[in-house]
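Consider the following assembly input.
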Amino acid sequence: QKEVEQDPGPLSVPEGAIVSLNCTYSNSAFQYFMWYRQYSRKGPELLMYTYSSGNKEDGRFTAQVDKSSKYISLFIRDSQPSDSATYLCARLGDSWGKFQFGAGTQVVVTP
Amino acid sequence: GAVVSQHPSRVICKSGTSVKIECRSLDFQATTMFWYRQFPKKSLMLMATSNEGSKATYEQGVEKDKFLINHASLTLSTLTVTSAHPEDSSFYICSAQDNEKLFFGSGTQLSVL
């Protein structure tokens, strides 16, 4: 079993819809979680970072962590075609410096 | 957020030559940097962990003599692909750790002819 599970998609939504992305993790050693956005042939860009249960908002983005279920989510409101990218969830793993990534979900926002 | 600069963004070389890729943390010091390889539509594959002032730690299956990593300062790590062959063609990405966060460079597309 992978440490971080993420559905690879693709996930296609119409412009203006809410994009909902999810990951599950299997170990609770560290509690730092991140979401990255990666455009084709570019490096991942850190979108959201959180370490506590509950919601964290930044503009159109909301990161949600449920530690009891070991579940993390990213919501994108009012999606735009420019949001079309691959989104990766990540966590700081079992030991300091060990970052674990999900497989990445490809999101396509259609005009 | 913190900025990680990676150069070059694209390189084309002949088979048998060596290619060096630089990764710099511009506004923070990074004791630890990571090198990844990514194939089209695939996730990141960790190649090695680079620690300033010590030898890099390579993941299983990664040839340390082919992929030379040097982390001579707290802001610079380099990856040298030695005697490159067409099968080394790939997208290489570096990242630098700033406390509990990880920041990525923009990636290098290597094409070996």
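Chain B has no helices and eleven strands. Ask yourself how this observation constrains the way the partners meet.
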